[in-house]
From TrEMBL:
Residues 23-139 form the HD domain. PROSITE patterns: HD. Signal peptide: none annotated. This is Phosphohydrolase. Keywords: Hydrolase. SMART domains: HDc. One of its GO terms (molecular function) is hydrolase activity.
Length: 178
């Protein structure tokens, strides 16, 4: 049972604000990759797509003299920590099941090891799916954050993904998972 949809999350003003900062087109693309990979790796596509949609909402803009400063970003970035916390707050506010909210937040927290001291991360399948989905849409120089997507098209794609997730949750393979 899904308590809330991707569309509800996507349309919330807080999600809109942070998704626009890190790139709506990237978030939509990663959500689609996450759906495909979740089915492939037999993890819950509802959790995977929600984590994927929100995985980068913790990004902060590291600029020096109006230009993106990669060094500064590398040194100071905690977007996975910030994003996990923001996503959890938003999901609970929207009425998500608390256990699902925790799983999604954890998948965001652990979708990258970029902020960890030793860079060694042992990921559970859901967390791995979100990382692989993110990597599938990565472009050199972080260009995936700047790709543009029309608001209406983004909404339509998220609504279509909601239908795919709902449809899949009704199929036999998922019942076996649960
Ligand atoms: Fe990303």
């Amino acid at each position: 049972m899904r308590e809330i949809t991707l569309t509800q999350i996507f349309e919330h003003p807080i999600a809109q604000k942070y998704l626009k900062r890190s790139g709506v087109a990237h978030a939509v693309a990663v959500s689609y990759h996450a759906f495909r990979l979740a089915v492939q790796h037999q993890v819950n596509p509802d959790l995977a797509t929600k984590a994927a949609l929100l995985h980068d909402i913790g990004h902060y803009e590291w600029y020096t003299d109006g230009k993106w400063d990669y060094e500064k970003y590398k040194k100071n970035d905690i977007h996975a920590i910030k994003g996990a916390e923001r996503a959890h707050k938003l999901l609970i506010r929207l009425g998500e099941n608390p256990q699902a909210a925790k799983e999604i937040a954890l998948a965001i927290l652990l979708h990258t090891d970029s902020y960890l001291p030793d860079g060694e991360l042992h990921q559970r399948p859901l967390q791995k799916v979100v990382r692989l989905a993110d990597e599938a849409d990565e472009e050199p120089g972080g260009n995936h954050h700047y790709r543009e997507m029309d608001d209406q098209l983004a909404l339509k794609k998220i609504q279509e993904l909601d239908e795919k997730v709902a449809e899949f949750l009704n199929t036999e393979p998922f019942r076996q998972l649960g």
